[in-house]
Design brief:
By secondary structure, the protein is mainly beta. It has one domain. It has strands spanning about 10-20, 25-35. It has a two-stranded antiparallel ribbon with strand order 1-2. A hairpin with a 2-residue loop joins strand 1 and strand 2.
């Protein structure tokens, strides 16, 4: 399992659906994120 953390403001454009890939339903989540500046986070 992969984990990631994103800090920012999510806009109102949130989209969730399932896609058919190689005969399997795969969940798909799209969020537009606005951020002030890139920052390196370690850990």
């Amino acid at each position: 399992m992969n984990q990631f953390f994103v800090v920012g403001n999510i806009t109102g454009d949130i989209y969730y659906d399932t896609l058919l890939m190689k005969g399997q339903r795969v969940p798909y989540l799209r969020m537009m994120l606005m951020s002030d500046r890139p920052a390196v986070i370690r850990g």
